[in-house]
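Recap from last week: sequence in, structure out.
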Amino acid sequence: MVIKVFLATSSGSTAIKKKQQDVVAFLEALKVEYAQLDIACNEQNRMWMRQNVPEEKKPSNGIPLPPQIFNEESYCGDYETFFDAKEDNAVYSFLGLAAPPGSKEAMQADEEQHIVENGTHADESNEEGAADDSIEVPEGDRNGDAHGEAEEGEGVEADELAEPEENEATEGDEEGHAEEDGEQEEEDLQSEEEEELRQLEDEEEADVEEEGEEFLEETREEVAE
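Predicted structure tokens:
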């Protein structure tokens, strides 16, 4: 794969020249194989570059400026995206190339891969540990809530069964008290009646005695006359 850098060798813009020089110098430093394609002297190169830069990557006027970088037919980016990749040690990824062993980008990729693999293994170990824990949990502990609910249900049933017995006992006590109260009332009535009879008898005896005394007194008076 050949990296294509579209340049304008006769550009009058100092900024464009500086950007083109930076891109070429860095590619040479990395020893990346590339080809310079001049758009100032070659109309075909200029038309091809404009047609193959994605619409979303073109400026508002629709005319992309050099340098523009391609990997064969695939668009890589312009100077700004190239500079960002350079700052992130990701130029090979930007160019669509494999980073050579020992390069900063390769070591960084290996480190990221190592972290991902360790994280994946750690997650798998945690899942296996969780599965083992779930297997080793005693059935009593796993069903603790169910047993607790069952015991509570039995306790409720026992309470419900005990309540009628208590109610029956209470009703029996009330009936017993009612019977005792009735007997007591009867006894009280009998006592009252007996007391009234005694009073009447005493009053009758008193009347008889008074009548007898009056009769004797009248008899004495008659005799005395």
